[in-house]
Amino acid sequence: MLNFASYMEMLMVICFGISWPINIVKAWKARSTKGISLLFYTFILLGYLFALVGKLVLIFYYAPVPWYETVHWYVMFFYVLNTLMVATGVGIYFRNRSLEKQVERYDHRTESCSQRETH
User: Fold this and answer.
1) Using CA atoms in the order 15, 16, 20, 21, what is the torsion angle rounded to 10 degrees?
2) Where are the beta strands (DSSP E) in the chain?
3) What pLDDT digit, counting tens, does each position of 63-89 carry?
4) What is the DSSP code string of 8-42?
5) pTM for this prediction
């Protein structure tokens, strides 16, 4: 029964994880933070981190039983993979925000120059 529960947990994490690569590519190409919520990313990231901490607590609780007998490696693998993908999404958010600020500074300078020329 424990294996069945682990498989169900792994499938849940895989289903969540399917969307992250799509989201990462879309955000990278968009070069914009529009439609992206940093708060959403933060809560998802915290959720994955809490799950990983829970798995580590189980590993230490059942020590000296080997970790791979306590927590199935494939479940841990997908938690770590999803955590890395969400962290990548957060990194892309900050990259896109930086790009937007560069564009704003450029537009502001261009606007200032054109105003001077008209006066």
Assistant:
1) -10
2) none
3) 898 877 778 788 888 889 999 999 999
4) HHHHHHHHHHHHHHHHHHHHHHHT--TT--HHHHH
5) 0.77
